[in-house]
Structure formats: C-alpha cells, structure tokens
Prior knowledge:
Distance between the termini: 48 Å
Number of helices: 12
Shape: globular
Strand content: 25-35%
Radius of gyration: 22 Å
Low-confidence stretches: 1-6, 371-389
CATH class: Alpha Beta
CATH architecture: 3-Layer(bba) Sandwich
Structural class: alpha+beta
Bound molecules: flavin-adenine dinucleotide
Amino acid sequence: xxxxxxxATHDIVIVGGGLVGASLGCALAxxxxxxxxxxxxxxxxxLPAPSPQxxxxxxxxxxxxxxxxxxAERFRRLGVWQAMRRxxxxxxxxxxxxxxxxxxxxLSADEVNVEALGHVIPNAWMGQxxxxxxxxxxxxxxxxAKVERIAPQPGGHRLELSDGSTLSAALTVLxxxxxxxxxxxxxxxxxxxxxxxxxxxxxxGVSEPHRGVAYERFTxxxxxxxxxxxxxxxxxxxxxxxxxxxxxxxxxxxxxxTALQQAFGDRAGxxxxxxxxxxxxxxxxxxxxxxxxxxxxxxxxxxxxxxxxGQGFNLALRGVTDLVETLEDSLAxxxxxxxxxxxxxxxxxxxxxxxxxxxxxxGLIRLFGTTLPLLPQARAAGLVGLNLAGPLRRDVIRRxxxxxx
Length: 405
Ligand SMILES: Cc1cc2nc3c(=O)[nH]c(=O)nc-3n(C[C@H](O)[C@H](O)[C@H](O)COP(=O)(O)OP(=O)(O)OC[C@H]3O[C@@H](n4cnc5c(N)ncnc54)[C@H](O)[C@@H]3O)c2cc1C
C-alpha cells in the first residue's frame, strides 16, 4: 500500500556513499542543522578500518583524482579541504602533447596567477576525510546495505533495502554510480556510447622530480595521463583499445615499465617502478533525465565520462553544491522538499555546464583518437595554436581549473 505523502520517513535519502553521495552528505550539514532535516545515506560496500592505504569500495579505490581549483574551493566550504590537502599534490603545470608529433601545449598556474591549477588526491584519502566529516553529522547510515527496489509513491519514493528495511523519502538522490539497475527500475533511459577503450591505472615511480607537472599525451593507442603524487610518484591513466590492456595487465613489472617508457617517451624521466594495476572499461553514459518529482540523479549515475580530461567528479561536485544551494533557496521560501519547481530550477542551472563538459571531454577524445590522413597535422597545429592564444586554450584552462565557461 502507498505511504501517504506526509508520512515520508526521511526528507532526503542518498543512494550511494561514494565520492558524490558522501560529498552531498557533507554539503547538507548546514541544512540538516537549520531545518532539522532527516537524512539517510545508504551504501552497499562495508566501511573498512581507517588507514591511509585503505581500498574499500568502488569510489574510494586505488585511483587518484585530479581535483580542480574550483573543487578545492568547494571542499573548503564543506570544511574538509584542510584534511584533504594533507595528501594532495598541487598541479603547477599541465603539459599536453601528441606522441611522435611536433607541438605541445603548456598551461601554467603562473599565467593565471594562482598557486595551483588543481590538486591530485588519492580517492581512498578523499573517502576517509569525507566519511570522518559525515560521522560528525546528524544523519543516518545504512551500511552495508543495498537499495534493491525503488518505486515512486505520492510525495516521493519508497526504497527497499537488502537489510530488510523500507524507507520513504521526499527527495531521493541517486548517487549509486549508475550500475545498480535503479535508474532502469524507474524507467530512466541512458545514452551509452562505448569508447571501445579500457583505462589501465597504476601508481608509477619516476627518476626525476615531477615538479607538479601533469601530462596528457595522445598516442596512437589512446590518450595517457600522468598526474603528480607526493614524492617521486605519479598516477598513470593509460588508455588501451578494449582487450589490448590484458597483455599489459599480465606483464611482469620490468616489461611493463619498458612498454610504458616506449609509449610515453622520456619527458617525465625514467619510470622506475609500478604498483598494482587496475583496468576500467570506458564509455560515455548520460542519463536522459536528471530530475523527476522527488528524485535527482547525480555523479556517475547522471554522467560517466572518459577519465583523461579529469572532469567527471569535478562536474559532479558542482552538481552537489548547486543542488544544496537550490534546496536552501527553496526551503527558505517555504518550498516542499523534492518539489518539481525546485528540482527543475536545479536542472536548468546544471544543464549548460553538464552539456559543455560532456562535449569537451568527448570532443577531446574524438579529436585525438581519429586516424584520418590530415588530422595529425591539424591536431599538432591545434596544439601549437593552443599554446599561443585563443578561445580553445582559455577553455582548456578554465575546464582544468573546474570553472564553468
Ligand atoms: C580511471 C578513472 C579515473 C578518473 N579520474 C578522475 C579525475 O582525475 N578527476 C575527476 O574529476 N574524475 C575522475 N574520474 C571520474 C570519477 O571517478 C567519478 O566521477 C566518480 O567516481 C563518481 O562518483 P560516484 O559517487 O558518482 O559513483 P561511484 O564512484 O561509482 O560510487 C557509487 C557508490 O554507490 C554505491 N552503490 C551502488 N549501488 C548501490 C545500491 N543499490 N545501494 C547502495 N549503494 C550503492 C557503491 O558501492 C559506490 O560506493 C575518473 C574515473 C575513472 C574510471
């Protein structure tokens, strides 16, 4: 039987306590306090005992993420930046190039008068900091517990959990990464375009100090990124045509380092060691609807992008803060939680940024992934041109910093 609107057990239920769901929980702190909101987060993977190397759930695994300057500012407002920056490496310069071609683009923090264009932070560390902050807030945790069924009902949604409990929420936020089947249960379609590429991720040692340089290099096999980590270490994101990563995953460390050196060249110095390797199949997935009455879709559930431009989480965090600001405006004006006027305003506020970032990331991959005869020259010219001036260059800098255009 349907629960009547006024008996929703919760004002907000967040499905997924990964990077996005946990950030949203932290961002809701002032509203929880001011309006005594009843908020729950449901996370399927168990929390481990805290340790700097802890790998514990899909969001907070061995990856490190490039966190744009705009995102650092958002984390600062959430009260977590001081702790985050303890394990963060500043990006002072970004070097974009194409293997075997003349032309490179350098973007530097100095030219835009900032201390850093962004920071690289291990996901596991971000997870610990966010969850420590969450533990201090007055919100409910269901973990480990999976949302198995979701269905609309008057005044919100009804959620059935794997631990046998049932919740009803005026506003449900899907931050489940998009692979749990909940969008499909609700009949929300997604546009999917496989890149036919797999990203191989590993932590690598380098012989030279990286001096805060992040590299993006476009090779015949696909794009690679090397991001600075504390000490003489860098995070490698190496894209392979789907299936071809298997041989590299299986190689001994010595052979892997030789192959990496060949593909990347010696601009970052000599690769001296490699940590555990992980593989992520890549596709562009965009949900066709980001809001419905009583429902908002955030993070990877709304948009999963190619990782080479480092945009996915940065875009999602802008969505998190925009959602909270829109809810705040609505509550201050006496609006009801989850009403479509509020969620529609939120969606409108996000649409331009979301479209821009999806086009930018996808366009970058397609521009550098094409093998038409004249394109290498055009790309090199583009890179050189990018180094001189022009709107594309400004666009790249602004996107790298996590600013909307
Ligand atoms: C290789 C790689 C490198 C990347 N690098 C960057 C980068 O440098 N910068 C950047 O901005 N972005 C980067 N990204 C993108 C970034 O990782 C994602 O945007 C981010 O992880 C999305 O977080 P999320 O919380 O939406 O989803 P997820 O990380 O998938 O987390 C979803 C959470 O929901 C939980 N869950 C799932 N189903 C259920 C359920 N039914 N009930 C309860 N809980 C559930 C899961 O256990 C998980 O904890 C990268 C992505 C990849 C693949």
